[in-house]
Amino acid sequence: MFIDQVKIYVRAGDGGDGMVAFRREKFVPNGGPAGGDGGNGGDVVFEVDEGLRTLIDFRYQRRFKAERGEHGMSKSMHGRGADDLIIKVPQGTVVSDVDTGEVIADLVAHGQQAVIAKAGRGGRGNKRFATSANPAPELSENGEPGQERSIQLELKVLADVGLVGFPSVGKSTLLSVVSAARPKIAAYHFTTIVPNLGMVDTGDSRSFVMADLPGLIEGASQGVGLGHQFLRHIERTRVIVHVIDMSVSEGRDPYDDYLAINNELEQYNLRLMERPQIIVANKMDVEGADEQLEIFKGKLKEEIPIFPISAVTQTGLNPLLLTIADKLETTAEFPLDELLEKEEEETVLYKYQAEAPDFEITRDPDGTYVLSGEKLERLFAMTNFERDASIQRFSRQLRAMGVDDALRKRGAKDGETIRLFDFEFEFID
What we know:
Layout: E1 5-11, E2 44-48, H1 57-60, E3 63-65, E4 85-89, E5 93-97, E6 103-107, E7 113-117, E8 148-155, E9 161-164, H2 171-178, E10 196-201, E11 207-212, H3 231-234, E12 239-245, H4 254-268, E13 277-282, H5 289-299, E14 306-308, H6 317-329, H7 334-348, E15 360-363, E16 369-372, H8 374-381, H9 388-401, H10 403-409, E17 417-420, E18 423-426
Parallel strand pairs: 1-3, 2-4, 9-11, 9-12, 12-13, 13-14, 16-17
Antiparallel strand pairs: 1-8, 2-7, 5-6, 5-8, 10-11, 15-16, 17-18
């Protein structure tokens, strides 16, 4: 089964908690702090595997969670960091965030990796908080929560050549006779409902990958028919082979078909018109096809190679395949080189992004002040509320962030309730 779009949930591992512990050593206050740090959690990493051709594995498992780091231990022993969770994906996988629509990674080369969800760091043990003023702190941190996100995986097939055209023009038949691929072939429209790939051997020690894409119809770029679901796959092909039915068996004009399909490609992505295009005049074994080809040539204004063939009788195929191979040799390796360079540039260039506020204050109908914010949530999660020293440190952090002043400006008075998640406390001015 061919699956080229799926939504999944990933969560990186939480960091391990730091520990409060003391060693027993003479002349050291309270034995001396000896609590170790927690280990870092594991990242969620996607890695390209050229042996995969579909996202079908994600249909059966849609939730992925990396391991958390080991907790800190006594005797100043740190917890072990968790291993990264490596998830294999096929070449041409585009990873984007469901909530924001941001493209996280575009994975095109075998072995290429991308961190999709970042792990939380391990919490510090009490040994890290020792100072000359407080040589024996009873203070530690919980591990930082790992990043979690819902993501969408979109597969764009990587092929050298893409066959495009109206339904039933002979694309599947052509692929079946020039390669070992066995796409479904029948005498009705939209027989092909998934892209089919085949390796083509030209007979002169050259070969290339050809993709038979589902038939397009007018309005495909706006979502009409089945073809719009697979227009994305054409983006990654280096040469477009436009198959046209010269038998007029469907009652359509070949030149009108040619204009309609090119218009859909242009509407979907203007850059597709920059790709080299070869026209295949198919079904030349049918009576009247020669006359239609001459009419088509008379209407065609562009200088585009036209190859009359019959996929059924397998005539005219060799010149077509050799020309495609020649065209590929002079066409830049667009999919891999350009996309990898683009990704490298994006990691180097600075992009201005407005900083999110550290916290927000809202008010519930019952009058309770509610605190929220990403930074505030992280501090809350890393605070060990079982120890007074940790609670006092959290209170100081809130004050340093300006939470107290902001509450006063909102009208908070002594004794009023402040809520942070499930934790409630009284405001003291």
